[in-house]
């Protein structure tokens, strides 16, 4: 079996990034974003100077740390919303009703935790926690 020698390899980096190989960070799944970035990075790297595997592992560890921190922050924010909504039970609150563009004072009769944002039952009507503008008589 004859082995032929390679005469040379020419690498021409892309002059611009096209729409097909752009990677966007749009708030989707972090693991999927990492894979997209990794594929883009590997497919656009210089073959004469490839990325070190240690660098790739370091990047993966950094992404995992960022994902974990993001998850912790979201959990903390959700816990804070639930705690605040629960503490409003039987309190007089000032509510801004964006549908009627009015503010009124009512009493919190219950809290609905079924969705992503707690809903506060003020005098029989559910409002998002963000609609509460104050606590106590005004």
Name its key features.
SH3 type barrels; alpha+beta; 138 residues; 5 strands
Question: Can you walk through the features of this model?
Answer:
The chain is an alpha+beta fold and 138 residues long. It has a domain at 61-138: SH3 type barrels. The protein is 36% helix and 21% strand. The chain has two helices and five strands; from the N terminus they run H-H-E-E-E-E-E. The protein has helices spanning 30-43, 53-87; strands spanning 92-97, 102-112, 119-122, 125-128, 132-135. A five-stranded antiparallel β-sheet has the order 4-3-2-1-5, with no helix packed on it. Helix 1 (30-43) packs antiparallel against helix 2 (53-87). 6% of the residues are buried. Residues 17-24 have low confidence and may be disordered.
Topology:
Elements: H1 30-43, H2 53-87, E1 92-97, E2 102-112, E3 119-122, E4 125-128, E5 132-135
Antiparallel strand pairs: 1-2, 1-5, 2-3, 3-4
